[in-house]
Every structure is written in C-alpha cells, then in structure tokens.
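Following up on my earlier thread - several people asked me to post the actual chain instead of describing it. Fair enough. Here it is, all 101 residues.
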Amino acid sequence: MKFPWGELILVGSTNEFSVCVDIINPGSEADSRDAYLKKGVAMYYVIEGNGLLAGKPIKKGDFKKIVAGQNMHLKNNSRKKLKLIGIYLPPYDDANIGYKG
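Reply from S.P.:
Thanks for posting it. Predicted structure:
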C-alpha cells in the first residue's frame, strides 16, 4: 500500500499475526503524533536508516516492542529512507490504530 509518507508492504499474514515492511520517506511521518495501538502487540526491527518512534531515537539494528495503548508514531527525521520490519499480533489492520486527542 502506497501512502504520501511512503509504503507499507504486507509480506505475509496468518490468523494470528502479520509481517510488514514499512518504508518511510525522508522527513515524513507514518500516522499522526497521537497514534496508538488499540489491542495486541507490534514489534519493529529497523533494517535501514534512523528516525523516531514515539519521540525516541531509533536506528538500524534496533528492536522495539509496542503494546496496546502505547504511542506508535513513526517519524523519519533523516535524509535517507527509514525501513522497518513490523510484526503485528493480531494481524495488521488500520482499524486497530487509534488516535488520542
């Protein structure tokens, strides 16, 4: 799926989880600053670049876990693409992303 901020590629999905690749363009943000996971768990592994996850720095090689209710705002504040592998339990669904505020 292509978005103004980049691309979300669904690699595979089962009834229990899905694996995606997020590619965030330089200077772009995926979702709004108040985005959060409504239920389940999301895990991100940074495969290229650096940026911010919930306002905290992330870089290549970082592995981060997000649980329901936690902020999951991703921002690429660099000049190169930010690429992450995302594992979502339950499977990724836009309806599982909430917005506070």
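The mean pLDDT is 95. That should answer part of your original question.
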